[in-house]
């Protein structure tokens, strides 16, 4: 649902329905989501929703989608190295096994008396039986080969051209991330071409055998991806040698980028809330898109002026041939004359007329594209006002994908959740409502201050004078709030889990059974040491244009999962009839009772009244009545 906030920020105003409809039509078409529509009012006060316009069968893919903005959690990045743009795993299976063991060792060494120490000791024993420090170092450094790991599709890491510790699965992903947002967010910013972090050749059955800087050392006092910084996601790490060469502030996309200050922003985000990193990604990509729109508008205006000059030249050329000159009085006539072409007595002027016609056609197109800009220019008073209006218009267009999704401010969302939780607990115990209010109010103030600190650091890193609306605290809070409510938790299958699954089910992967059985024998101690941690996916959070429009039900008919490629796929869990709403479950609803589900859904800011909840509520009320009657 679009926001109806009371803020004066134009980016927070309700998006006109026509504009939203146009945007979603474009989204559906670009995703080739056939048989799907977005209705502005899904009913029951739930805002917009996604509906099937044709029947789907259980298991059908409804659509696949990449996020508009996403980050992997810092902790998860230590355990599963992925492409910072698309979340496909990078490195080798061996490095991932080593990384997971390091994380496990760290976790176990943090165990306290409150943990089950016998269980902890059991796991330590298993690790010691499986690896020694030399073997672990070998896994991490690419000196140890495990059997059949070449069968798992992995990508060789490509480093960020800016010199920070971000890694990508391909030069394509590196370039896309750089162009879309990372050029403004990289805390190092030495803009060289992308470089592979591995010097190895690709003759190793696609393993991407890396001599890549390991993310862990065998002592397991590991650092995040790339190894040199406490930061991850956008803004991770730095190379001090490159930092020394670059200027303190770089001008890019109309923004003065202070890389050192960006580093401080990311450190703060890593210490406080991952979501700030996603918000920064949205802000950076919006600036870049808006800047491109402004450049385009300027080019169109220049083209219009050029067209005018060409027209003037065409007029004077045509003056030599009266038949044409009499007719070429408007751009439309110029175009018609040029199309007619032959028969002109002004042979010398024909080419020029055609050029003029073409220039006019271009100018007309440009004028049409920029017509709203022109209207604004006429309406605006001073040149400065005109520029501000132009900037705002470009900004609104660039921000549209997020404007259609934004919600209440983060501090309000969280404080309301807290209030409700406390009221619930309060009504179950003796509840002092005054102190509850103070707690929620305090929380609101604390979160607002935290967001203000984060935004101040981002503003210091991205010094911008054209788009003040984008650096407004209320907008920042709304962006973070939107991510809290709309984001899909990313869970990209880890390569170690795929490796294990392949060894256990070789036939499904076309792998020789005997080879798999021998491999299982060899790696059994490692898999036992890892236990369930082998299966832990890469976890993060992403905002998706279409998935974020799907409402919740405690009896869902669809489910979203991540593929190893990092793409999200939405599949039908049941048959879905044409005209039905597509519904996901935002929570682990299976086996949970009504109150438990409602408590989980509090985080999403609504009370569910889906068919299952309504039926259970009714059944509960009837039961209560019967008890009273009895
Ligand atoms: C991911 S968005 C879904 C799209 C949303 N309807 C919109 O208009 O943007 C999640 C929000 O939709 C609303 N919503 C989703 N499922 C709901 C449900 N079962 N009952 C009430 N509100 C729901 C809540 O406001 C929730 O915060």
UniProtKB/TrEMBL annotation:
It comes from the Eukaryota. It holds the Pfam family SET. InterPro entries: ATXR2-like, SET_dom, SET_dom_sf. Residues 193-250, 417-438 are annotated as: Disordered. Signal peptide: none annotated. GO terms for molecular function: methyltransferase activity. Residues 209-241 have a biased composition (Low complexity). Residues 34-587 form the SET domain. PANTHER family: HISTONE-LYSINE N-METHYLTRANSFERASE ATXR2, SET DOMAIN-CONTAINING PROTEIN. This is SET domain-containing protein. The lineage of its organism: Eukaryota, Viridiplantae, Chlorophyta, core chlorophytes, Chlorophyceae.
